[in-house]
Write a structure and sequence with these properties.
about 425 residues, alpha+beta, D-amino Acid Aminotransferase, Chain A, domain 2, six-stranded antiparallel sheet, 11 helices, about 30% helix
């Protein structure tokens, strides 16, 4: 259509022949053109709000939505409309990456086109969805309320490591919040494997398995208002821990945020509601540390914001020989870590004395070594706490010994294969 000055005097507002997108155009794009002071011609008033959609047009709207989403992502926008004035990108190479800490990793462009496993709780269908198109509703319980549980899993040589323990913790957490997942642990693990197999993934893979209570008809807490079964999302990524923290160690900062008792929120729940840990992480980051060291309500060391904590202390015995002992905080105020449990078992296997007990930050300062454990990073040495050097300020011999033992344990677990893992996961439920 050739431009004509008379077009500026056209009556403002959508017309029947304009189609279902007209209300958005007149309320937004038309107003931004400056055709008139109020978004229309001289003396015209701007369109207020959106006219109700004709129910007969809903199928057409749904059909157009996918194309609209593509066009919307490529729409031209002024730089002033973006934070910092720049255009944001979801490409792996352009995303901000945290440096330091147990979760440092190198972005991998292969993740841009992976498939995400999703179980729709309303229809019950499970689909593999292209990652850029994988979304949940704004009325989903996890988004609205942080109402759900999750697990971080590692895939090594095609096998999910310690799957039986992870699933046991997930299902226990779901039972704790009164949420029925609607399938057995074995069935859920099969969905995880279906997702990684659809991506032809074998090793160097981290998986986020999330189960949230499901869709709500309106923002509201009561679980009785949930529509259908819980939503399940399985996000596999090519993602390995960076070697720097493993080799050089990390720093911790003792924050004022405490781990609460079970009658406030059970610290054993691996829940989507992580603000207690996030607020601790914020304080540690502001202090220039990699992670936060958190105390229990009584002032004893409890855990870190995303990992479990250990120290190693030594003494000289009556024979004049140096003896070391691994100390772990009691489990009352921390997540029952899968890697933590493995390390406790390895200490016994390796003949390294180990105790679970209450100890203070002062005893941390006087430790010979310290380390943290987690599924993603394994064993990571801690070399500074609150700016104070731990031991010699470098990974110690006992930490390195346990690192090697844990790596061997992971290989041994992978050698058991999938069949064994599935059997164990199923047999416990």
């Amino acid at each position: 259509m050739a431009p004509d000055p008379a077009m500026l005097d056209w009556e403002v507002g959508p017309k029947p022949e304009d189609g279902p997108w007209a209300p958005w155009w007149y309320a937004g794009s038309h107003a931004s053109t400056g055709f008139g002071k109020g978004g229309g011609g001289p003396g015209a008033s701007a369109v207020k709000g959106r006219t109700p959609l004709d129910p007969t047009l809903r199928p057409l709207l749904e059909e157009c939505q996918a194309l609209y989403a593509v066009l919307s992502r490529r729409a031209l926008r002024p730089r002033s409309a973006r934070p910092g004035g720049g255009l944001l990108s979801l490409d792996s190479g352009a995303c901000p990456v945290h440096r330091g800490g147990t979760h440092e990793y190198a972005p991998d462009s292969r993740n841009d086109d992976t498939l995400v496993g999703m179980r729709d709780g309303v229809t019950g269908s499970f689909d593999q969805v292209w990652r850029p198109a994988a979304t949940v509703s704004v009325l989903e319980s996890g988004f609205l309320l942080g109402d759900g549980v999750w697990e971080g899993l590692r895939l090594l040589n095609g096998v999910v490591l310690f799957a039986d323990r992870h699933l046991a913790r997930l299902f226990e957490g779901a039972a704790g919040i009164g949420m029925s997942i609607g399938m057995t642990p074995e069935q859920l693990l099969r969905l995880v494997y279906a997702t990684v197999d659809a991506n032809a993934m074998q090793t160097g893979v981290h998986i986020r398995l999330m189960v949230t209570r499901g869709l709500k008809p309106t923002p509201y807490q009561n679980p009785k208002t949930t529509i259908g079964l819980p939503t399940i999302v399985i996000i596999p990524e090519y993602k390995e821990a960076a070697p720097g923290p493993q080799e050089d160690g990390i720093s911790l900062f003792t924050c004022h945020v405490r781990r609460g008792p079970p009658d406030v929120q059970d610290p054993g729940w691996n829940s989507h509601s992580k603000l207690n840990c996030i607020s601790a992480c914020i304080q540690a980051s502001a202090a220039g540390a990699d992670e936060a060291l958190m105390l229990d309500p009584h002032g004893f060391v409890a855990t870190c914001n995303s990992t479990n904590f250990f120290i190693i202390r030594s003494h000289i015995d009556i024979r004049g020989e140096r003896q070391c002992q691994v100390w772990a905080p009691t489990p009352r105020y921390q997540m029952p870590g899968i890697t933590r449990a493995s390390v406790l078992g390895l200490c016994e296997q390796e003949g390294i004395p180990c105790r679970e007990l209450d100890f203070t930050v002062t005893q941390v300062y006087g430790a010979d070594e310290a380390f943290v454990t987690g599924t993603f990073g394994g064993l990571t040495p801690v070399v500074r706490v609150d700016g104070r050097r731990i031991g010699r300020g470098s990974p110690g011999p006992t930490t390195l010994r346990l690192q090697a033992a844990y790596a061997a344990l992971c290989l041994s677990e992978a050698e058991r294969g999938r069949v064994r893992t599935l059997h164990v996961a199923c047999s416990e439920w």
